[in-house]
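Annotators were shown the component list below and the corresponding predicted structure, then asked to write short factual statements about the assembly.
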Amino acid sequence: MPGAMHGPMLSPAAPRRAGSLSPPGQSTSLPGWRVSHWFNTPAPFELGHLQGRVVLLHAFQMLCPACVAHGLPQALRVHEAFQGEAVAVIGLHTVFEHHEAMGPKALQAFIHEYCLPFPIGIDQAGGAGPLPLTMAQWGLRGTPSVVLFDRKGRARLHRFGVVDDLVLGAAIGQLLAEGALFALGEPRDHDGIGTARPACDDQGCVSK
Amino acid sequence: MPGAMHGPMLSPAAPRRAGSLSPPGQSTSLPGWRVSHWFNTPAPFELGHLQGRVVLLHAFQMLCPACVAHGLPQALRVHEAFQGEAVAVIGLHTVFEHHEAMGPKALQAFIHEYCLPFPIGIDQAGGAGPLPLTMAQWGLRGTPSVVLFDRKGRARLHRFGVVDDLVLGAAIGQLLAEGALFALGEPRDHDGIGTARPACDDQGCVSK
Amino acid sequence: MPGAMHGPMLSPAAPRRAGSLSPPGQSTSLPGWRVSHWFNTPAPFELGHLQGRVVLLHAFQMLCPACVAHGLPQALRVHEAFQGEAVAVIGLHTVFEHHEAMGPKALQAFIHEYCLPFPIGIDQAGGAGPLPLTMAQWGLRGTPSVVLFDRKGRARLHRFGVVDDLVLGAAIGQLLAEGALFALGEPRDHDGIGTARPACDDQGCVSK
Amino acid sequence: MPGAMHGPMLSPAAPRRAGSLSPPGQSTSLPGWRVSHWFNTPAPFELGHLQGRVVLLHAFQMLCPACVAHGLPQALRVHEAFQGEAVAVIGLHTVFEHHEAMGPKALQAFIHEYCLPFPIGIDQAGGAGPLPLTMAQWGLRGTPSVVLFDRKGRARLHRFGVVDDLVLGAAIGQLLAEGALFALGEPRDHDGIGTARPACDDQGCVSK
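Structure shown to annotators:
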């Protein structure tokens, strides 16, 4: 019954099981997210702005019990535990049901009351069917879902449902380690700004 | 920070501390609740219908983190633990902020997703100011709040914030015990229907 | 698996299911406990010393996972929540296995490390078989077990395993309420010392 | 108060703060552990047997509340989450107080009751003073403590007290990633047995 209060939500989309971290060479190539509105950031966010950082994207719905009880608190823990390191946490509000109850005003109140500090985008409503665009294109099964991108912007982990902190931490650690080695071996950019100090941080992007 | 996600909400109303169970003779006389719409019950609910039962009223807002994390799960536990006994659980949606995000449609989706099984009423919007009518008249400080009525419909406990299960259980136990003794000593009604089988149960009221 | 770490322990004694609070007239008549050594109290404790108070006896073993994870923390919560009221918490160390690992010295270290503040007695070793005397005479199934005595010293609730806080709280509340009414209606003793100020408290008994 | 029940234990040894993962080149060189008796393994365990695997060593005392409530359940979660991967979990019973209550027989009963499945060694009693040998030589501050060794047997993380699952997971993930790259780039041993299939697993070492 407390279980009943915390169940994840399944989308009408086809199921798609996610395994452990895929090797860099076999990473899923995902198109960029499609966001109609951003909160907690002065300018739109693109994955490309975050290169050099590991990105945890948490797809949620504000009326999804497992998101509120497990997914969002975990996203917040990641945000706080790795703030000083090169991990960025992004929320994506992927509404696929009860659309009238989870509009932008409602989400704004929700973000305010739950004190969510990281950037949160609204997945753009799809033309046909209940699924928003990013959710449909990425084949997300429902909420909560976690997508982990490596420092080069490649999707390396897809998970639907509640993920264990140890397992998620290990995946983040592996991607951070790759980045560290990558950092030693390859030139990253030509203008002298390294990945340790990206042009975008959790608060937004600085135009150069 | 997980704390930040679960804080109770304070209303703009004047503070009003609540102590332990008040003696029957000094119980607070509260006017009946004012409800504009009910969920999970076919007919409007009045406290008078519940005489003979102990009533736990849980005042909440669907976007109140402490209500979702603590208050509503506790109300659900009470509902399940004392279902066979003479305890009725009622929810009261006392919206005093973010009104546009917590309307009837949004609440309906929330009740559906969180599988809340007990009757829930919407506290009637007040004419002036953000506080709904019952909340204002009862002097509730914010959400979550618990009001416990004894078998005679007298308010005996008022609590704002998170209440310990042991303490709430003991208050319920005391009121149940009073009822048992009351049951032995006093005639309760003139038509032979005792409190063990009330005219109203959690699913609604039977007209006689 | 966390479950595996917290399982209660079954004694070799015959099973004996416990229900809800029994009516005062049908309470179990239990012989007094048999204790070979007391901790946290300057003088031996008898149930008779506690008349006028509700007594929660928590039977445990220091190497019983469910006692450490659930039973003892609950006993501590009861001790703290009802300290000002007429509830006494007593621990009873009912060792029925691994006797060599749970002797008096080990228990003393355990009580010290876990900061247990209430009186704890060692159930006296039995002559034959692994069960200690009180455990055998009372027919306890294993640890953790809870026995609740009313203000007149009658055992009113027996529970083996993990008990919900709401349910335990309600049982305590019912027994407290009985006492309150009993207090109003009956003379309790002939020397003018009422039950509100018993001769024994959690720290020991005062000889008069 | 639940806090009081779960506090870690400080050893009389000098404090020694631990930071995040140290770089491979600056890892602490620790002498091997000194174990007087092993449980859950048919043969003595040496760090050298585990080369190629990441090793989590959990130093605990069976009567340390924070070990029982946090450290050991976490060690168990690591054991289960990374069982298929190259992570070995080892327990080290570092008794520095209440020696008479935490002898080998008592520990054996504890391991049995808590169903601990991984190899556990008893840190050898020191000649002088209360600290056992390994604890003294490694400068552990108290229990619970975690020491993380990389695939080459170098100590890379030292932590006293409760460690967050995300943070521990990330450290494990980083060490696993190092190993993977190391595996690709360097010859590991001269007898053709790779690290993916070590001569020792959680159940013991096979003599060749």
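Statements collected:
1. Chain A has one domain: 29-40+51-95+102-206.
2. Residues 13-19, 182-208 of chain A have pLDDT under 50 and may be disordered.
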